[in-house]
Amino acid sequence: MTVSALKTAILPKLLAGARDGLPLDTIGVTDPLQALALAAQVLRFDRPVHPARFHVEEAVADSVAIMPDAARKLLIRLFSGKNQGSAQLSSMIVRKLAERKLRPHPFDLPKLEAFVKAHAQNLGAEALAFSEREKPAAQKQNYFAPDRLNDENWMLATPAIKAGYIGVRRATDREAARALVEAAWGTETADSRMRLLGALREHLSEADAPFLKSLEKDRALRIRALAQRLLAKLPGFEGDNPALREVLARIKVSKTGLVFKKTSLTLELPPTVRDHTKMAWLNETFGPIGLDTLAGALSLSVDAMVAAAEKQSDLLFALLLMATQDKRLDVVKTITERHLADGWAAFISKDAEALADYDPDMRRAWIGHVFRPNSWESDTTPLIIRHMAELLSAEATDGMFSDLLISKPWLALRRENARYEADVLDSAAVMCPPAMRPALRAELAALDPAKIGNAVLFLDLMDSLETAHA
After folding, report:
1. 168 or 83, which is more confident?
2. Contacts of 271 (CB under 8 A, 6+ apart)
3. Count of Cβ atoms closer than 10 Å to residue 6 Cβ
């Protein structure tokens, strides 16, 4: 008996209660209910009708090695439990995975969904495909490892990787890099355009002027501001610079001294600027201007301009912000060592994007000049450790981290009933270089056990990742 015959000849009669012509006696079936049950069992093995069309997902190829089992377990404990790891911990883990050329196991992706979605662009093709599995096909992003990019496919990558590619191309062929950005500009989001424009700030030349001028009508204010700042830095720029005019209108130049006249600069803040909005105003007002541009407008050298502002903390903060943007670490060092012991206060509200153009070594040098843990006072908030880690976005030097562990804010954490959040300890763990991990573990052991858990797990995870493939 075939399934087809059962459906067309026998089952309808069974359902109607008829027995005439049914071959039931040959198999020993006398009860209609028994026959119906037998028919139901036969139908279980019937193959369903295949669909007219199939939607086959494109296979995801990811040749990067999977992280070791010990590290997998630690990662799951960090990001799938009740007290999940902080954003600082996750960012450093992603960087370490990229450095070691490792990726999460595909079986772990559902357990780490929040972590994967936050960092999918940097976790490999499989993680990106998992994070976008519910998106329409037209909205899905393509994953390209940086070493697979070229001038034909770079615009298909994720925003961070695209900006990195343009930065590399800018160093080898600045004209070609700018041409690639111009061609793709109209199809990019505001965030992506900001990244791409930032990648062009190196190796500026007069040939960049037409493109930068065309951005005066860009729909994003921050892009217009950055374009104006880059345009003003071009050799021989003589156009109108509204930002410079506004700053010069608020800086008073005077001469002091009876015998040896010395130039002094005074900054007059608008009456609407309050203490809690001062840094934001300084950044917004002085940000579009370069140090050399301002010094030239004041007929001073950069060093003389800094010296002339020695008693004006607000102006010194502004110059520190400008020196940071211009990557003038020599000026940063002069300002923080001679004039502003608390120069870090200008960056409390900023994140790692403030140093987006800095490589890890430059970040460490900048942090060493601006934060200087050995100069922190006993009343300095422990939150300074978190701000330091956010801006550093890398491991500190051994010397810098040793200074942190003997700084007054860190030692204050040991006091009975000391008030601090667990993410301060996470921040210390993120900055901890490998050689200093035993020392940090000993420090953590003396602190509140309820707050050290994620920091300890993170240190164990870093050890596990660094010994993989060793």
Report:
1. 168
2. none
3. 16
The mean pLDDT of the chain is: 85
Model confidence band, residue 251 (pLDDT cutoffs 50, 70, 90): very high
Gap between the Cα atoms of 268 and 340, Å rounded: 19
What is d(CA 85, CA 460) in angstroms, rounded to the nearest whole number?
Answer: 13
Contact 401, 432 (CB under 8 A): yes
CB atoms within 10 A of CB 263: 17
CA–CA gap between residue 195 and residue 161 (Å, rounded): 10
Q: What pTM, to 2 d.p., does this model score?
A: 0.76
Specify burial of residue 147 (Cβ count, 10 A radius: 0-12, 13-18, 19+): exposed
Structure tokens at 301: 């050298």
Q: Quick check: 131 and 93 in contact, CB under 8 A? A: no
For the chain, the structural domain boundaries read: 3-43, 144-238
pLDDT tens, position by position, 344-361: 988 887 766 778 778 889
Q: How far apart are CA 34 and CA 68, in angstroms?
A: 57
> What does the alpha-carbon distance between residue 226 and residue 212 come to, in Å, rounded to a whole number?
9
| Contacts of 37-45 spanning 24+ positions with Cβ under 8 A | 39/6, 39/10, 39/11, 39/14, 42/1, 42/3, 42/6, 43/3, 43/6, 43/7, 45/3
d(CA 282, CA 318): 6
Task: Provide the pairing of β-strand 102-103 with 65-66.
Answer: parallel
Beta strands in 275-343 (DSSP E): none
Residue 382 near residue 424 (C-beta atoms within 8 A): yes
Give pLDDT, residue 470: 46
Residue 84 DSSP one-character state: P
Structure tokens belonging to residue 174: 């600045």
AA identity, residue 220: A
**DSSP calls for 87-151:** HHHHHHHHHHHHHHTEE--GGGGGGGHHHHHHHGGGS-HHHHHHHTTTS-GGGPPP---GGG--T
CB contact at 8 A, 412 and 110: no
> What spatial distance separates the first Cα and last Cα of the chain, rounded to whole Å?
64
In this predicted structure, what is the pLDDT of residue 3? 65
